[in-house]
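A further point concerns the way the authors explain their paired sequence and structure data. Since the whole study asks how a given chain folds, the encoding of that fold should be made plain. A single example would do more here than another paragraph of explanation. An entry of this sort, consisting of the sequence and the corresponding backbone structure tokens, reads as follows:

_____
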Amino acid sequence: MGRTFRLLVLGAGVAGVFVLLGPMRDEAMSGARGLWNQLDPREAPVQAVEASASSQLGDHRAEAAIDLKKGTSWAEDARGSGKGESIRVRFASEVRLTRLIVTPGISTDPERYLAQPRPRDVLVTVSSGGRPQLLRLEDKPGAFQAFSLDADDVRWVELEIRSVYPAQGGKGNDCAIDEIEFRGKD
């Protein structure tokens, strides 16, 4: 009954949004379908237990990227825009990962988001080997982005910043990631 009830509530919510949005409903429905397709209900959250980084800025420590709180973030503190900086997250035991979810930027607030560089391309490496994946992130404030990640026996995952979206006005130089999340299957 729990799953059926959740699906009924979700359906009612989508119907309500559909009616309320009027002319914007096509765009809203397209976004909702995209979100639904990104997440597989058979996947479960996999929580990282530790994070470390090549550098970190003050209160924007590596652990902030795995705390499941929007608006806290890891920000690198190296010279330049952040290219080459990395963050590594660890798990309590070996896990099977199916999806990586990244929310880029130092904040979900659009103005603060644009004031600092954001990762554009990140190289994802997992401890269990395999070929590293180069992922392109979209430049959207507060938007989580899901990527397939099929890896077994994973102890850690590292994201290395390969390129960035520049800060608006060219003043900021602390590239950041708001959240890094994982999904997996047994």
